[in-house]
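Worked problem 6 (solution included).
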Amino acid sequence: MLLNEIKRVRGQRLPSGRSLTRTEIHKLHQACKQDKSPAGERDYAIITTMLVTGIRRSEVISITIDDDNTRNDLLNIQADKGNKQHITYLNTESHIIVKQWIKTRGKQESVLFNPISKS
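Solution. The predicted structure is:
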């Protein structure tokens, strides 16, 4: 076999970003718990949901109140990459945190993690 007959091996780039350490996750949770405002409670629910499910930022902001299935600890993700839909599961602790956020925000139709105005 000649050298020019050997196919070239192409490398792949690793995805950008990195995993959070346990210490970083703990610090995020502590910062949210120390913030007694509705924004702190919302942020805690967002961070917990993202860590448990592995969904993207674009997916978490598109979840509506109707996408939360409280009976089965499910979240329906509507705006996945490639405009696909899928269902993801919340563990018991994270679902309690999300339910507490829903109790604080109310059940009005909107995105689950809505912006909070200072007024």
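Discussion: The radius of gyration is 19 Å.
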